[in-house]
Amino acid sequence: MLIAYGKSPDDCIKCPACQGGHIHHDTVTIFDRKAEDAPSYALVVERGCCVSNITGARAEQDNPSSRRHGVAIRFWCEECDTISELAVEQHKGSTRLRWRAAEGHYSPNTKCDEPPLLSIIRRFGQ
Fold this sequence. Notes:
The chain is globular. The chain has a six-stranded antiparallel β-sheet. The protein has helices at 56-62, 116-124; strands at residues 23-33, 40-46, 50-55, 70-77, 83-91, 94-101. It has one domain (23-102, 110-124). It has two helices and six strands; from the N terminus they run E-E-E-H-E-E-E-H. By secondary structure, the protein is mainly beta. A hairpin with a 6-residue loop joins strand 1 and strand 2 (40-46).
């Protein structure tokens, strides 16, 4: 089972590599389209405030959904150092979850100059 939820300490998202329960998310990417099958664009929030915008071929390639919206949440595992993404995709009226490989590495020393909302407003307007 990908996700189990209950009152037990064992009910948590597990690392896809080692099945350990000590994983942490550090980056969220939101993929959007103006209409079905339209080009993708993405908003990336990393470590709570470092925001970037992705368009073009990279947004198309990274979007979990080939035709609609998607979300990718990057995780790193304390137990085996695996970095992976939990991808949320829309497909024909269904929402699907799957693990996929992720690029990059965990950077605990990333410094942020301003809070997330202010950063988004400055980059993308009000």
